[in-house]
Here is the input.
Amino acid sequence: MMPLKNTATRWGIISQLLHWLMAILIVAMAWLGLTMGDLPNGPDKIATYALHKSLGLSLLALVVLRLLWRLLAGAPAHVAGTPPWQVRVAAATHFMLYVLLFALPLTGWLLNSAAGFPLQWFGLINLPALAGHDEALHTLATSAHEWLFWLLAALVLAHAGAALFHHLIQGDATLARMLPRGWLRTPTKPTQENPDV
Ligand code: HEM
Ligand code: HEM
Here is the structure.
């Protein structure tokens, strides 16, 4: 049975689902965000912007749940033998990823408010404006949204590269333990510290 909670050696199913669902949504959001501006004006363009906003708001809700779950369920210990500097770099990267997972939807919401547009979640829920109509704020929040996105993209690339490095070069369980048991074979034998990978 896959544990619901995180154990000392593995991420549980809830953390795994939240991690990969959010990763997929962020790739979709990047693609929507980077292409929607070039669409010809019309109902399709409006629907694409609305989808970007609704999915972005969903990500904001998901990161709140994820952070609460993280505080409740904790995290597995780092893989045995990891040098302390790598533990620190990983912790700093994960912290920054969490910050950006909040900052992106919030700057999106802010720029939308400052532009004077209403905001709905999939046409079902009306959300309040975070600020009144303000062109200077609109410009500022739009640049912040764009720059924070590129920072997120760079960090995600480094993060995914590190995960692949652990798996392919170091041969440890870092990536395997973020996936259901048995999906990835860990090249090294399970150690005493990682008996259940
Ligand atoms: C994790 C969540 C989000 C990601 C990854 C994301 C990503 C992006 C990206 C890559 C762009 C294109 C930037 C560029 O032109 O270079 C963009 C633009 C935009 N985003 Fe988001 N976004 C997110 C959430 C939101 C939310 C929640 C809203 C609104 C409620 C929003 C509203 C907008 C708008 C209106 C634009 C067009 C800005 C303009 O060029 O005038 N975004 N977003
Ligand atoms: C938009 C994409 C992604 C985001 C925002 C993201 C975010 C995060 C965050 C915040 C954590 C820390 C979890 C915590 O401590 O609560 C994490 C862990 C992890 N991520 Fe990602 N991730 C993304 C994509 C990926 C990809 C593509 C891979 C693999 C190729 C990956 C592999 C991992 C692994 C293996 C861990 C666990 C690290 C450990 O056990 O110390 N992630 N991710």
